[in-house]
């Protein structure tokens, strides 16, 4: 049996903690269930003895509509931070995205001023006049600033400022949990603190990759192995995790605007994008088809852009950064999403999408590492590679990140020059949803259904 299918079957058969409580009289089970749900609402870390009785809600016919659905969904996607993980301080500091005209920024309230406030807590021995700031330009949705003392680049503190309106798309609490989980397993840099509109963490030495790098066998084997390591992390505290993919897609769908103030943008909106009913039908079609492919649900990065992969040639390894979209998802989705990134971001060229031959090599390296981390040995059959290949290319249909350039640049392409900030934010949300539901509709000039047929026949 394919290792991915076996993982999925094992998860389905896993014993459920405290299931014997289902035998208790209904009043007892009802009391325990309500207490467990109340604890979920009032505590940050659910107590182990009250967490499992959510299964008992299946017995509560009168309470089921009010209690079961939301709490079951919350538990299915719950990310458990390992005991003993260091606490992350929250600093009541806000850092602006811009610097006042004229530079300096000492007391002008720009990003330098905010960064120095953070460094007073994180690096109290650094003198403000000795601090050098470097703004990184590779970020798509956030502003990233590197802070270091003089010319000493061995100790660099990264200050990441959340992009405007990104809270509509990103659950910052889940991002923080994911960051801490990955850090605990050696898959993320040290997280120093969070602040009002961002977080600070350790700089990882190396270079951010470009699309041409990820085709290099030496590098893509490192990427495959690192992704397998993350997928093998057990971070759900005994619960059988569920994918949050469809939940997030539904959330994005609810954010689609009905019109734009800018006339040119609204005209393009009506001309180029299917109406909400068509998008809903495509989303339902993909959910029905892809949910039954047998891909196990694991902890995923969900945004493996080339620029989110840091290659350290001296150490001979890679690390992943930016965990905004990290969460439980289908294993094959994470890989398919990464394969879409081979086509680039600023200039999308789908002729660069990895060939079947390259994919098979990549997937074999991944499966060898994944089975090793899970304790299944390292032997990989042709059948296992074939099954994963089909799953990955089906899940590539719901990936959205390879068209993020359109998401970011549409208002400028429409010649609005960001005159209307509301339109700009609406454009971001709208095109994120449009690409999330139908990436190949735009990228390959075919609907997701047609793209699905093509990937099966190739």
UniProtKB/TrEMBL annotation:
Pathway(s) it belongs to: Phospholipid metabolism; phosphatidylethanolamine biosynthesis; phosphatidylethanolamine from ethanolamine: step 1/3
EC assignment: 2.7.1.82
Gene3D superfamilies assigned: 3.90.1200.10, Phosphorylase Kinase, domain 1 (3.30.200.20)
Classification via InterPro entries: Kinase-like_dom_sf
Signal peptide: none
GO terms of biological process kind: phosphatidylethanolamine biosynthetic process
The keyword Lipid biosynthesis appears for this protein: yes
Alphabetical list of SUPFAM superfamilies matching this protein: Protein kinase-like (PK-like) (SSF56112)
Keywords tagged on the record: Lipid biosynthesis, Lipid metabolism, Phospholipid biosynthesis, Phospholipid metabolism
GO cellular component: cytoplasm
GO molecular function terms listed in the Swiss-Prot or TrEMBL record: ethanolamine kinase activity
The family this protein is said to belong to: Belongs to the choline/ethanolamine kinase family.
Designated name of the protein: ethanolamine kinase
Species for this entry: Anolis carolinensis
Organism lineage: Eukaryota, Metazoa, Chordata, Craniata, Vertebrata
Designated gene of the protein: ETNK1
């Amino acid at each position: 049996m394919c290792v991915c299918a076996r993982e999925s079957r094992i998860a389905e058969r896993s014993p459920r903690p405290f299931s014997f409580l289902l035998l208790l009289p209904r009043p007892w089970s009802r009391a325990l269930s309500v207490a467990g749900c109340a604890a979920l609402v009032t505590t940050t870390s659910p107590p182990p003895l009250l967490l499992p009785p959510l299964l008992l809600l299946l017995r509560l016919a009168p309470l089921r509509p009010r209690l079961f659905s939301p709490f079951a969904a919350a538990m299915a996607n719950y990310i458990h931070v390992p005991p003993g993980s260091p606490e992350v301080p929250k600093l009541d500091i806000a850092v602006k995205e811009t610097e006042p005209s004229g530079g300096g920024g000492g007391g002008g309230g720009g990003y330098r001023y905010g960064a120095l406030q953070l460094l007073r807590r994180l690096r109290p021995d650094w003198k403000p006049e000795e601090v050098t700031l470097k703004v990184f330009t590779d970020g798509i949705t956030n502003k990233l600033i590197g802070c270091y003392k003089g010319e000493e680049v061995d100790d660099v503190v990264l200050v990441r400022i959340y992009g405007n309106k990104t809270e509509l798309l990103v659950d910052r609490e889940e991002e923080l949990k994911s960051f801490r989980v990955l850090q605990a397993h050696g898959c993320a840099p040290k997280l120093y603190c969070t602040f009002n509109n961002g977080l600070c963490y350790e700089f990882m030495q190396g270079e951010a990759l470009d699309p041409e790098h990820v085709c290099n066998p030496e590098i893509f084997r490192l990427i495959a192995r690192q992704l397998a390591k993350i997928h093998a992390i057990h971070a759900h505290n005994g619960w059988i995790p569920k994918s949050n993919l469809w939940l997030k897609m539904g959330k994005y769908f609810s954010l689609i605007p009905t019109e734009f103030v800018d006339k040119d943008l609204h005209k393009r909106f009506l001309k180029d994008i299917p109406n909400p009913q068509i998008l809903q039908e495509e989303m339902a079609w993909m959910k029905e088809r892809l949910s039954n492919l047998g891909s196990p649900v694991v902890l995923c990065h969900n945004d493996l852009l080339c620029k989110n992969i840091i290659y350290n040639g001296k150490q001979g390894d890679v690390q992943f950064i930016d965990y905004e979209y990290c969460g439980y998802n289908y294993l094959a989705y994470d890989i398919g999403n990464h394969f879409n990134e081979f086509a680039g971001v600023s200039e999308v060229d789908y002729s660069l999408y990895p060939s079947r031959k390259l994919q098979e090599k990549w997937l074999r390296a991944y499966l060898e590492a994944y089975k090793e981390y899970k304790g299944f040995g390292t032997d990989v059959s042709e059948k296992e590679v074939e099954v994963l290949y089909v799953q990955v290319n089906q899940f590539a249909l719901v990936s959205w990140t390879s068209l993020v350039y359109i998401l970011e640049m549409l208002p400028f392409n429409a010649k609005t020059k960001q005159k209307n900030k509301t339109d700009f934010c609406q454009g971001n949300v709208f095109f994120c949803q449009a690409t999330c539901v139908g990436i190949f509709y735009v990228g390959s000039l075919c609907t997701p259904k047609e793209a699905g047929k093509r990937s099966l026949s190739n």
